[in-house]
Amino acid sequence: MKENFLDWSPSTDSLLKVKERELHAGLHSHISENERTADRILANRQFRIDALERILKEKGIRLKGEILEVGAGDGWCSAYIAKTKKEVRTIYTMECNEPAVTKLIPQTFQLLGIPDDKVVYVLGSFNNIVLKDKFDFVVAMGALHHSSNLKRTLSEIYSAIKPGGFLIAQEPYMADQTPNAFYYKQNDIEKNFNGYGRILNKERSDTFFRKCEYYAAGYHSGFDVSIIEIDQPIGPEKPANLILSMEKVTSEIGKTPVTTW
Ligand SMILES: C[S@@+](CC[C@H](N)C(=O)[O-])C[C@H]1O[C@@H](n2cnc3c(N)ncnc32)[C@H](O)[C@@H]1O
Questions:
Q1: With a 6 A CB cut-off, is 73 part of the ligand 1 pocket?
Q2: How many C-beta atoms lie closer than 10 Å to residue 31's C-beta?
Q3: Domain ranges of the chain
Q4: Which residues pair with 166 in a beta bridge?
Q5: Whose CA is closest to atom 14 on ligand 1?
Q6: Could you list the residue ranges that cross the membrane (predicted)?
Q7: Is 142 a pocket residue for ligand 1 (Cβ < 6 Å)?
């Protein structure tokens, strides 16, 4: 049980829905109490590892310095970065629920045999990042689509990144032409999470934003945005996957983007 962690009080973030936080707290607590192995932790993660390596290679970026991972889940990506990216000095690994920060993520490092001496555990929300102009990179793996307000989340991440730093993310996305009806329908779907009861989608935040919404929210937050489509949406209802890099361009710091609304 990790007792030393930064507490940025995610429960005070009004954009983080209570059921979103509680559901993941329950899931993460449950996972940490069940038998876990290194193989199982890494199973199904190769897709995201490949996505991370691909965007770094295509943009000619080396992960280094101070990193913040938001919505880290069980912390596999922070562990991967700690193991493979030797120029990284510190990784702030953030989750919005306590079982993830105190039990699940430390357990992942332990099971994978990766020292966590570079890791700062953070209980916090990506809508309220306390450290400003601090990080060389913010990494989000399937986390941004849990935002209830993408512009707010990206603006907050922008303010946390150092001049010249980047947000790197892998997320699902929908075609730009996806009608609002799709989202209304999604919102009214009720899912049964084993052991946590039935939750309506609109009670939490799990949204397949359109690709154009990543562009708009990113540009309007001040970033320059680059998106690679890993695949394309099949039909009107199925999301595809993208990788994005957003750069906080040094010469533009302090300017209000002309096109923002
Ligand atoms: C789909 S999971 C992805 C987890 C992990 N990155 C992975 O690749 O497996 C999304 C995570 O975002 C977290 N999350 C949701 N809202 C958040 C917020 N406002 N701030 C930080 N994390 C949040 C959830 O608790 C959940 O663990």
A1: yes
A2: 18
A3: 6-250
A4: 137, 247
A5: 71
A6: none
A7: yes
Name the CATH superfamily, with its identifier, for domain 6-250.
Vaccinia Virus protein VP39 (3.40.50.150)
Section 179-204 average pLDDT:
91
Residue 44: pLDDT band (50, 70, 90) is: confident
pLDDT tens, position by position, 99-143 = 999 999 999 999 999 999 999 999 999 999 999 999 999 999 999
With a 6 Å cutoff on the Cβ, whether 218 touches ligand 1 is no
> Alpha-carbon distance 173 to 175, whole Å?
7
The residue contributing the CA closest to ligand 1 atom 10 is 143
> Quick one: pLDDT band at residue 195, thresholds 50, 70, 90?
confident
Place of tokens 């937050």: 221
For residues 113 and 104, give the distance between their C-alpha atoms in angstroms, rounded to a whole number: 14
Model confidence band, residue 24 (pLDDT cutoffs 50, 70, 90) = very high
